[in-house]
Amino acid sequence: MSGPLHGLKVVDFSRVLAGPLCARTLQDLGAEVVKIEPPRSDVSRFSAPVAPNGVSGYYAQQNAGKRNISIDLNVSGARDIALQLCDGADILIENFRPGTLAAFGLDYQTLAERNPGLVYISISGYGQSGPWRSRMAYAPTVQAEAGFTHHSLRHFGENLDTPQTDALSHADVYAGLQGVIAALAAIRQREQTGRGQHVDIAMAATIMSINERAHVDLNDLDLGDEPAILGATDGSFFVGPGGEEFVSAISLVGTITFRFFMAAMRRPDLASDPRFATATARRANIGELKHAVQAWIWSFADMAALDAQFDEAKIAIGEIRSLSDVAASEWAAHWEATHEVPDRDGGTFRLPGRPWHFSDAELAPPGEPALQGEHNAEVLEGLGYRADQIDQLAASGALVGNFASMLISKVLGREARPERPSTPTD
């Protein structure tokens, strides 16, 4: 057995997160990915903690297993390399500012004339056309522009000394996953039409589409003090019998969900208490209500007994764990929720595993993160280049070596430990 996408060839022009995650996910599913890295490298190689060889944990998480070539498209000969790779590709992924690849003659129209079956995935902040197409776009700024940050501040802002945004790059991650979905849909359509196509993915539109509360704001609905039935920001935090911190998935304030807590506590009398009789009253007296629930929680001998009582009342709870804690759990061992890849300096990176298990497909191990330009010779040999031609391209600067390592070593004042590439190039 092999991965479901075995046989698909992907050219990855992208950098940092959205595009690399898209390409990495396709690779995890069995596709073959060649990453084309610019001369000054993917900036994620400089993510802390910085490694002298240019292989940071951040870079490894999104790029392990991809073959890597580094070319300078401003130098004669480099564009021909890119064109030949695209000629044999099924999918191309890029997340530059709109128009960047077109300046090098690597736009969809040009490539599609040479390879009509190519599926060309463009991920940008606001799309390839329109009034905002040329704006810089990073996850925090796109999330602010697309309602995500406003939604968070509306729930949390009053509890913060200063406004803060979410720590994770949701716009990048979701846009990358939407890129995977779109790529697979376009490949499926190609089976029927024989033609590829250009898919334009906007991070801002993605953030709007994954907002499950969007219908409230878009339709100017006034919920008053009545929260949604399910909502992470309305769940309550409690302390278990043994000091465990945990959160419930439903609100104490909501009219429907409050009844779940009454059932769990065997306290139907709370409904007639004027402090808790309505959503408005419960919100006004939320401290007293939480105190009553917390006192009841501490009447249990352990979390197992408490969880059983909550489960009976259809209330899901989750203990607050660090990522290290969950990785050490029995569930993580059973699921194989983490795996290790080489750090290319004698150690390893522990990274998240795959989110799928297939009954009739076997996913290959993730492989190791490549050094910048590590597979220059290997990839070009596969395209039919002779050794002397490869040497000439390297001498001209069309092919680039490990610039990231050279720069980092200069800054840190030390060199990476030399390592022979795991894949021979001679």
Largest sheet: 6 strands, parallel
Counted by DSSP, the helix tally is 18
Class by helix and strand content?
alpha/beta
Please give the alpha-carbon distance between the first and last residues: 30 Å
CATH superfamily of the largest domain: Crotonobetainyl-coa:carnitine coa-transferase, domain 1
Polypeptide structure, described:
- With 426 residues, this protein is α/β, with parallel strands linked by helices.
- It folds into 2 domains: 9-211 and 336-412, Rossmann fold, CATH 3.40.50.10540; 240-323, 2-Layer Sandwich (formyl-coa transferase, domain 3), CATH 3.30.1540.10.
- It has helices at residues 18-28, 57-63, 78-87, 108-114, 139-145, 148-156, 170-193, 203-209, 214-218, 255-265, 279-284, 286-297, 303-312, 323-327, 330-335, 376-382, 387-396, 403-412, and strands spanning 9-12, 32-37, 67-70, 91-94, 119-124, 197-202, 235-239, 245-251, 317-319, 338-342, 348-352.
- The strands form 3 sheets. A 6-stranded parallel beta sheet has the order 3-2-1-4-5-6, sandwiched between helices. A 3-stranded antiparallel beta sheet has the order 7-8-9. A two-stranded antiparallel sheet has the order 10-11.
- Helix 1 (18-28) crosses helix 7 (170-193) and helix 7 packs across helix 8.
Please supply descriptive tags for the structure shown above.
426 residues; three-stranded antiparallel beta sheet; alpha/beta; six-stranded parallel beta sheet; 13% strand; Rossmann fold; formyl-coa transferase, domain 3; elongated
